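Progress narrative, work stream C.
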Amino acid sequence: MPEMKVGDVIGVECIVQPGPFSDERLITFDTTDGPISGFVQEAELRQVGKTWLVRAVIMAVRDDFLEVRVRGSFFTTNGLANIQKRHAVAA
């Protein structure tokens, strides 16, 4: 993946399950603090082969991880998360 910078839109690998509404999905993705789950609009997701990706915006780039914002309603965060760079995919 090319050099990542603040403001870039990326995809974050996630697990997708049905949500409570037809246009909403329950997702889970790994962070440096453990998995995060919550609801996102279907438009925030794309599938590449067997892998699901949720849209995220890079808020900060660190040596070992990225701070990203994912749009949605999460159980333990406001959408901010630190992810390992290996879980990021160019959008």
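Work stream C, second folded protein:
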Amino acid sequence: MSEAYREAGVDISAGDEAARRYQAHAARTWRPEALTALGGFGGAFALPLDRYPHPVLVSGTDGVGTKLKIAFALGRHDTIGIDCVAMCVNDIAVMGAEPLFFLDYLAMGKVDPAVAEQVVRGVADGCAQAGCALIGGETAEMPGIYRGGEYDLAGFAVGVVNRDGLIDGSAIGDGDAVIGLASSGLHSNGFSLVRKLIQDAGIALDAPSPTGADGVLLGEELLTPTRIYSPAALALCREFPVHGMAHITGGGLTENVPRILHGRWDVELDLASWQAPPVFSWLARRGDLSDDDLFRTFNMGVGFVVVVPAEMADGAIARAGELGERAARIGIMRPGNGQIHRRGSWRDTHS
């Protein structure tokens, strides 16, 4: 290897070792359409035209954000890859697209093969949950950009849907039911605020959680991975007339649901209609946060929204339960101009 390059801070051998460790994890995500393994210049994937004769490709890219700081502080890197996959595949699932393959980008100040393997193992776990193949990626060593022990992680997903199955919210009608699928916690948004509140409170990440979650350390609760909704969402699309879907990420319900309303519909949300993890009420109290702050920053216990005709709501909720999701009817569609109206106060309904 180049001694000069190593003296400059880049260890090619460490990168090679990390790439070698990825192979077994990627193999767990194999699909028959995947034509290449990790290690080439590109990943090749054959479209399943037997199931998608009129294919529309849907792509999405995202990262994990400052939730990574929690992983750095705890030295725990095995779930953060699930977050990365979830943020991408959930985004493309809202259009009815089945995730086909995934690529990750891991940039490290100094490549530590053991840490890199933990990260990619999480990516592979997420891909396995979503049913997509991990067919490529990049591990970059960037001394001077990232501090030692720190890294950034981003991903890119491609999915497919038949043209006549594309979902964009255009079918939404008056009285449609808004169904919320429960989140597993904070997912991957709002962590800059969360970290500030924890710092201001002087609470250690390895201390018992103050949120009310029993027997859980605070750091463990915060690292709970983003839930992957694509399998359940796609099953609901196959079995019910789904009129629209939304992934509740940065901006919360307030800014994500209007993306499918096309300026024609409003949503009336009933805040008492769902149960949320206790972390949200703790954040509201600790930061003295208004409902507007909460609903524009966090998912507030709803990670994914599915819109169906009112008469189909009970069946869709029951089916979501069979698919492993906690679902509730949280609102209704009314003619409007793309606004979210909240009925009730978060503190009054989730004290």
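The chain has a mean pLDDT of 93. No further action is required on this item.
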